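SAMPLE LOG
Freezer: B-3
Tube label: C17
Construct: single chain, 154 aa
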Amino acid sequence: MHEFGLCEGVLDAVQKRAAGRRVAGIRVRCGVRHAVDPASMAQAFEMVAAGTEADGAAVEVVTVPATVTCHGCGTTSEVADPIPVCPRCGSADVDVSGGDELTLESVSYSHAELSRTLRSWPSTDSNSPMTGPVPVPRSCCCTGGQATVPTIVS
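STRUCTURE (predicted):
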């Protein structure tokens, strides 16, 4: 179950953002080429996050499609299947782009944590966990590299 490797990187990004605050939920954008099952991802995150500030956090997975361009018929379209084929002619002779994203889209905090955070926001500290992108390291067999986390809007 490769979701565990993905969840380790996601948890690292969550912990950097949370900076010790209790996390109520997260939303993760996963490209279709990761072949992530949302239920398996939630279960893996629950196990990986046990004993951390994200313990018990709800996990929402948003699947991002890939784009295929068919060499046979020239069609370009989005596909949600991890094994891309042309939806028009069925050919597997396609170029694939996208669908390999892994982005922590949002983190939500418990109401008490959010109230505490808003009292001290905005931060002028450039090292604040609420500013700038946070890399999401991945140890997955599907794709390599790093994704970034957009600034959180709570």
